[in-house]
Design goal:
Length: 431
């Protein structure tokens, strides 16, 4: 069948199920779960795979999954990515009252668009070469580091980010390229967008140990770990003027433990932070300065400090050829598709982009600010249905006619990190 006719069939198939797709988005919005704990979400997504009769593998990186539209082993394989995790923002008006968890980064929309793209592609899969994988990936938001550090110590995961873990466990070994999606509130009235780069980062868990004693009676016998942490943070601030604008450095700490009882001098303080930047050398350079400052805080009051640096995400560079294919398809669905520039946020799509061709769509349909109590779903067709069409028809371009376009993209791609050297490379990032 002619390629345009295939695209038409896929778009019609998605439109025919629009109501069901919107219900999936609504259902997922109601079961927000933070990274590596997305059990209900995984169950929901896998029930959809089963309904479609897709062969799938699950429990990848604890809650992740891969559903194959065609027989496993056909290549090239294009994966459509949906991030399973939510955030923990208890001030959001729709946060789960028990947990404080809420989808205010909009990842529920990605999972919806991923499934819906699969619904569309299922209708034409036999007309395409290679394979299509719907991939539910856990833990994009690198949060709750104490919890994840425990998972690492218990041997349940090696990396704190879900896509990092997928690369590490070999879940990406039969995948040739990935396309994701993400909502945004900055499309200036447009419905879809493409392009742009993002910062990478090193994640940090810092533990200050002091000596507890009665805060009123015997502070002279104590070592105040909270003061050590505060001085460490101030030292890092004093380095900010040395950061170059073009490196887009960000350092943002939080204290997750800052003592236990108010009438004792705090002796056990935990800090989580990221050092973000646009390039690996910039991140490493800023990280060294921040570590010096964090150590100096401990030294100033005679506390002890344990610095646990964790490989965060790699700077994200969309594959330029793959991104053009996506962009051209978006332009068949809507008139204006703005190009993104550099974001100082980060994503583990960055890690995917270092090992195989990767890009992602951005979609509107939300209002307010991401990670914020103002984040809200506004236009469900724009947020769930339209991106599914864009993803699906892009896959048609990639896999049509002996998958010639996909093969061209694979041939021109040069990995920043060879897949089998990923763990080693990431370890070097923090040395
Ligand atoms: Zn986010
Ligand atoms: Zn996000």
């Amino acid at each position: 069948m002619d390629k345009q006719a295939l695209k038409r069939r896929v778009i019609d198939a998605i439109d025919a199920r629009a109501e069901e797709i919107i219900k999936i988005g609504d259902d997922l919005w109601k079961i927000p779960e933070v990274g590596y704990r997305e059990y209900k979400t995984a169950e929901y997504v896998e029930a959809q795979y089963e309904k479609m009769g897709w062969y799938y593998e699950n429990k990848l990186g604890i809650t992740g999954s891969k559903a194959y539209l065609k027989e496993k082993g056909s290549r090239p394989t294009v994966a459509i990515v949906g991030e399973l995790d939510s955030l923990d923002v208890p001030t959001h008006p729709e946060a789960d009252p028990k947990t404080g968890w809420v989808h205010c980064c909009g990842h529920h929309a990605q999972v919806t668009a991923m499934l819906a793209a699969g619904f569309g592609l299922d209708v034409v899969k036999d007309e395409l070469d290679g394979n299509i994988v719907m991939m539910g990936v856990p833990a994009e938001e690198l949060i709750q580091m104490d919890f994840r550090n425990k998972l690492v110590e218990d041997g349940k995961i090696t990396f704190m980010g879900g896509k990092q873990e997928f690369i590490h466990i070999g879940a990406m070994d039969d995948i040739d390229m990935t396309i994701g999606s993400h909502s945004t509130g900055s499309l200036k009235g447009a419905k879809l967008g493409t392009g742009g780069t993002e910062n990478g980062f090193i994640a940090k868990l810092t533990k200050y140990k002091g000596i507890a004693a009665h805060a009123g009676d015997h502070p002279d016998e104590a070592v105040n770990a909270l003061n050590a942490a505060l001085l460490g943070i101030m030292g890092a601030h004093a380095n900010r003027e040395t950061f170059r604008d073009e490196d887009h450095i960000r350092f943002h700490p939080i204290l997750t433990k800052a003592g236990s009882i108010v009438n004792n001098v705090p002796a056990d303080v935990h800090m989580e932070s990221f050092v973000r930047g646009a390039t690996v050398p910039a991140i490493k350079g800023a990280n060294m300065k921040v570590n010096n400052a964090l150590r100096a805080g401990a030294m100033a009051v005679g506390a002890e400090v344990e610095l646990i640096d964790v490989p965060g995400y790699m700077p994200y560079h969309r594959d330029p050829v793959l991104d053009v294919v996506l962009r051209e398809n978006c332009l068949t669905l809507t008139d204006f598709v703005p190009l993104g520039d550099h974001s100082c946020g980060s994503t583990d799509m960055g890690d995917f982009s270092c090992v195989h061709p990767t890009t992602n769509l951005v979609m509107g349909g939300v209002s307010g600010s991401h990670h914020h109590s103002s984040f809200a779903v506004e236009d469900k067709v724009n947020l769930y249905v339209l991106p599914a069409k864009a993803l699906a028809i892009t896959v048609i371009d990639l896999l049509y006619d002996d998958a010639v376009k996909a093969k061209e993209i694979m041939d021109q791609f040069e990995p920043v990190i060879p897949r089998d050297e990923y763990a080693e490379f990431m370890q070097k990032m923090i040395e």
